[in-house]
Amino acid sequence: MDSRRVSGILLHITSLPSEYGVGDLGPAAYRFADFLTRTNQRLWQMLPVGPIGPGASPYSSPSTFAGNPLLISPQPLIENGLVTDEELAPLAELPNDHVDYARLVPRKRKVLRTAFRRFQDDTTTIDATRLKKFRDTQSAWLDEYALYAALKEAHDGAPWTEWMTALAHRKPEALDRARKTHAAAIEKHIFWQYLFHRQWTALQAYCRARDIRLFGDLPIYVAHDSADVWAHQDLFHLDDEGEPSVVAGVPPDYFSPEGQLWGNPIYRWDRMQERGYRWWTERLRRAFELFDLVRLDHFRGLDEYWQIPAGHDTAIDGEWKEGPGTPFFKAMKDEFEELPVIAEDLGIITDSVKALRDTFEFPGMAVLHFAFGGSPDNEFLPHNHRRNLVVYTGTHDNNTTVGWWEEELSDEGKEFARSYLNLPEHEEDVDIHRSAVRAIIASVADRVVFPLQDVIGLGSEGRMNTPGTMDGNWAWRFTPEQLSEEDEEVLEELTHLYGRASSYD
Q1: Are 203 and 26 in contact (CB under 8 A)?
Q2: Rounded CA gap, 97 and 481, in Å?
Q3: Which candidate in 217, 225, 303, 344 is catalytic?
Q4: What is the arrangement of strands in the sheet containing 304-309, beginning at the earlier edge strand?
């Protein structure tokens, strides 16, 4: 993996400006890429880009392979004659400073249904050769996903375990009937995936031409109510009804006395290995198609994982199980020339996890917010960083740096941070977000990333996600006027000053 000094911005696509209710793959994405170019940022990190489920979390998707139709920009659809300005008016009524998912989803899906109907009426609006090539190259997941999505619609959104038994258990004759009965809906979902693909690859090419690498995120587990589990039930620990028999989570610790009960089904790693990890190979292949770098979320779970009996209310009664470890990554190395993987190794990490990470030379992570506990030996303090590392001011799960400073950091932590970061004595003179950005951009680490909120100095109103809560997450968006010329100039200056303006090409 390339090890030159670079920096970048964490900003999910949904957080971009747009006149249609949600950030998308349209003009604002290209303008943001231009901003990255002007400031010599080489990384654009984002959250998972799959379809969202209940709660709008990108980490709980009905498919680990598919793209999110909400990210499709209406602009090219207008240009191709698939929708009209008048038909987009309901989207234009939505707020521009946050995503109102309750109103967005039905309106955007209506627009996309209109686009599909127009395509059916005039198939010359889309290049048939390119559409066929897309279907052929993505057949490993596309057909099953489209069938799953069509059936979920036909069952009013009910989870697949509540469908008729023959469909839930994937009886061949029932699947054949479903493909015929729901042929139009299947074609619609394939069409939407093609629109996403076409817009994504165009943006990807634009970024690569400007020396920007797209940096994605891959959750270790998939949602139970997903095409992934429904289509590959034998690869997960499920009971006779298709429900998880054991689920994922993490054990109790100082911050969480009952642990964390995530509820995702656990992989049958024995069967995965018997089949040469084929499902995971296809999963990573898809991730590497979409992104130049991929963060493996909860990397520890590939060394050992916490398994909890289904039906328990907490994670207390789980147990550690051995993960696939070295044989898994050796198989992936055999399959791919390069594994451009970042190991999310935050939290309590054992020597075994570190050894697995270091054996394959995966960069780990460090977060500046976690550095100010009072000890100069804290591994997250910049003077303790190593080169093969990705350093953040904060992540999507943290408060913004301003919010962290004003609301979360203890008085002792502030005192330590004031001394370490050489902050002004008077609070009104402190630009904590810029001091934090400077601290990590000066780090010896090869890669540093800062959320856009920390570039423009937003408080907790700019927080993307608060773990353990359900309301108000994943909705933040920035508006163009929030990103000032001064912010741009400061970022460009710091990038040059600390030697992170080098080119990948």
Answers
A1: no
A2: 11
A3: 344
A4: 260-265, 246-250, 304-309, 319-322
CA–CA separation, 119 vs 110, rounded Å?
14
Q: Which two tokens stand for residue 477?
A: 């968006």
Catalytic residue at 297? yes
Q: What is the rounded CA–CA span in Å between residue 337 and residue 228?
A: 26
| CATH class of the domain defined by 6-127+202-232+266-308+321-498 | alpha beta
Residue 364 DSSP one-character state: E
Catalytic residue (choose from 297, 304, 406, 492) = 297
pLDDT tens digits for 137-170?
999 999 999 999 999 999 999 999 999 999 999 9
Q: Are 449 and 42 in contact (CB under 8 A)?
A: no
- CB within 8 Å of 178: residues ≥ 6 apart: 147, 150, 151, 167
Active site residue 431: no
DSSP, residue by residue, 42-80: -EEE----SPP-TT--TTS-S-SSS--GGG--HHHHHHT
481 catalytic? Reply is no
Q: Report the predicted TM-score, pTM, of the whole model to 2 decimal places.
A: 0.97
- C-alpha distances (whole Å) from 150 to each of 145, 336, 340 are 9, 33, 34
Contacts 24+ apart (CB under 8 A), 426-432: 430/405, 431/457, 432/401, 432/402, 432/405
Q: What angle do CA 144, 147, 152 make, to 5 degrees?
A: 125
Q: Which one of 87, 100, 397, 488 is the catalytic residue? A: 397
What's the pLDDT tens digit per position in 481-500? 999 999 999 999 999 999 99
Coil vs helix vs strand at 83? coil
Domain spans in the chain, listed from the N-terminal domain onward? 6-127+202-232+266-308+321-498, 128-201
| CA 471 vs CA 59, 62, 465: distances in Å | 15, 20, 9
